[in-house]
Amino acid sequence: MTTIGFIGLGAMGMGMARVLLKEGFCVRGYDVMPAAVDRLTEAGGVGVSSAAEAAEGADLLILMVLNAEQVESVLFGEEGAAAKLSAGSVVMVCSTVPPAFARQTADRLYAQGLEMIDAPVSGGTGRAADGTLSMMTSGHPAAFERAEPVLSALAANVYRLGDECGQGSTMKMINQLLAGVHIVSAAEAMAFAAKSGMDLRTVYDIICTSAGGSWMFQNRVPHILEDDYTPHSAVDIWIKDLGIVLETGKAERFPLPLTAAAYQIYVAASALGWGRLDDAGIVKVYEMMGNVKIHGE
């Protein structure tokens, strides 16, 4: 496997594509933003003008687009990327999508003689850029056999969760439940500390070495302390991801009260115009509700 089609060259996708280039793969990439395609070309990839063109001649097609609707459009809509792939080619869907959608998409690809790996990722832009992502994957063994060199290049940890697509997306959904709630709890705790008159850098240092800490607390609170909300993962992403969690819980009649409460904080932040800020920007909701300014000075 030497030629990779790559669709979705945002912050995560660009890092992943560059890793593949460094590992010697030919990467044909497309994004709706022409500047992103230009950056891929500058890095040594082949920039193309459509998703269908990215799929032509590809042994494996990676999708790192925003949501299920974009996956659907890229593969089966006017873009028609699936129709450009040769029989036996592998589609790797790295986007966060509902498990049911992943299963349905796999069935449609199988009907066209194609394979699919359900492969959502975790680790953020830094780990995407250095090839140390965690990948939660499922799909037929034959697909994994073909894609193994690509998976090894992109990830430090590849978790194979079964032969049925959808299991990878289920695992990602559970991860996003925890991650989304942890970000809200971190913002709430720091806002409460500010209202209580605590030195926030001291609070951060202590929590990072105490039982109340989490990876999200350690990673996101520095953004709050620096008052820097340059988006690495935007507020609106969590409306999508926690929306998937809640919709799946509704379908399975499973209560998710913490997820629902966290979801409303993200919705409030987006409604106030902060949807494109870094997700740590939800702390602004607490600043407004608590009449407190949070900073690390």
| Tally of DSSP helical segments | 13
Poorly predicted runs: none
What fraction of residues sit in β-strands? Answer: 5-15%
| Secondary-structure element string | EHEHEHEHEHEEHEHEHHHHHH
Could you say how many structural domains there are in total?
A: 2
The level-1 CATH class of the largest domain? Alpha Beta
Largest sheet: 9 strands, mixed
How far apart are the termini?
A: 52 Å
Mind telling me which CATH architecture of the largest domain this is?
Answer: 3-Layer(aba) Sandwich
Mean pLDDT: 96
Number of strands: 9
Oligomer: single chain
- Structural class by helix and strand composition: alpha/beta
- Could you tell me the radius of gyration in angstroms? 20 Å
CATH-assigned fold name of the largest domain: Rossmann fold
Q: So what's the overall shape?
A: globular
Helix fraction bin: 40-55%
CATH superfamily of the largest domain: NAD(P)-binding Rossmann-like Domain
